[in-house]
Each structure stands twice: as C-alpha cells, then as structure tokens.
Amino acid sequence: MCPETIYEAVYRGLIVPVDRQNLRTGRIYRHRRGRGRTRDGALKQSTGMKSIHDRPAAVASRRQAGHWEGDLIIGAGQQSAIATLVECKFRTTVLVPVARNHSAKIVADALIAAFGKLPIRLRRTLTWDQGNEMFQHQRIEQATGLKIYFADPHSPWQRGSNENINGLLRQYFPKGTDLNAWTADQLNYVAAELNDRPRLCLADQTPNQAMQRWARQQTRR
Fold first, then answer.
1. Which of 108, 53, 103, 43 is nearest to 79 (CA)?
2. What are the chain's domains?
3. Cα separation, 69 vs 82, whole angstroms
4. For the chain, N or C: smaller number of CB within 10 Å?
5. How many CA atoms lie within 13 A of 43 on its CB side?
6. What is the DSSP letter of 173?
7. C-alpha distances in angstroms, 77 versus 80, 129, 154, 172, 180?
C-alpha cells in the first residue's frame, strides 16, 4: 500500500473517524498536490531534468550531510512565497524569503544566495517537486555546485522531511497569509525554533546540536 493511499483513507475516515483536531493542517479533505503544473510546463522543464530515481544512494540512507529537500509555501492570492529547505541527515531547516513573486528567476536567485552561504560540503544535492518555479534548475546547479533532482508528480512522500516541516510551518504562516510581510530576520527566528526542537530520529538531539557536532568533526580532519 503506497503512502498516498493511506492519506486518502485517513481523510475519508476509513481508518479512524475524521476529526479536524487530529489533523495538523485542520483540513478534512486531501487536496491535489502540485501548483497547477501543465503538461506543456512539464515538457518545457524536462530538458536536462534529473529524476529522483537517479539520485545517489547516500541521499536515501541519510548517512551523508549536504543533501536537501525543498519546496515553496505559497501565500495569499499566489502573490508571495517562502522557499523551505530541509537537510536530510540533520533535519536542519532553512527558510528563504522569495521577493515579490515566485517566478523561476527570482526563486533561482534566492536559492543561489541561500546555498552560497553554506560550506561546500553541505551543497551536494537538492530534491524538489516538478514546479514551474524550478525552470532555471541548471543555473542553480552551475552557481552552487548542487545536483538537483525532481520527485515524481504528485508524490510528496518522496520529500517526506520537507513535507513534514511545511506542515509545521503552517502553524506560523496560516493559509491566506501575505508572506511578503515577514522579514528575513523573522524567518530566521522561526527556523531557529524548529532547529532547536529535539528529534527522536536524532537520538533526542536538536538539528542544531547534530549539525554543530558534525561541523566540529570536520574541523578535526
């Protein structure tokens, strides 16, 4: 049974009774994934696009640092956005303001600036969905050294860490929020709160603690 089938069963009340209080997003329906991608858009982006199925095995194993999952959360009227990035090994969250709109050029500029602040060892791969905002993925790769891979259409579980963080972020940025109203400092504050939460998958360390421990180990080599 695939994850999407389980999601559908939960929202339809086939596993447990549907209750808004038990669903973190508050929705009692399963909405279609993606942002209105058209067939023409998919064909346009397909040139040079690398599939998630071609990623190095190290990404899925989470044994190597520097592999990221990313997405956009969209604000009111599709007029604002924040890029959300999650590092797969340490679950570190980075929030990137996307100025004015989320066209391919602006998203590329924002991601290039964000990854440019990271050490080269933390710039290995990025996995994204097949949104139109990533038409300039090859420019991002050239500028950052990342290899960018694309998940299958309507397969959010292939970016599970990022999807989980996006759900948490909706507690800070509810649907219908004008995301342009949030400054970079405010986004950093939200990311810091998430990065200071202990995680069971990190043996109760926080993402910050796990990342700092890794950084110390790198300086000794």
1. 103
2. 1-31 (no CATH), 40-219 (3.30.420.10)
3. 14
4. C
5. 3
6. S
7. 8, 21, 22, 18, 12
> Could you tell me the pLDDT band of residue 220, with boundaries at 50, 70 and 90?
confident
| Residue in this structure with the two tokens 């991002």, named with its chain if needed | 140
Dihedral over alpha carbons 135, 149, 89, 117 (to 10 degrees): -40
Short-list 200, 196, 194, 125, CA closest to 165: 194
By residue count, the chain amounts to 221
pLDDT for res 69 = 98
Count the helix, strand and coil residues of the chain and give each as a percent rounded to the nearest 5: 45, 15, 40
Helix (H) or strand (E) holding 98: strand 93-98
For the entire predicted model, the pTM comes to: 0.80
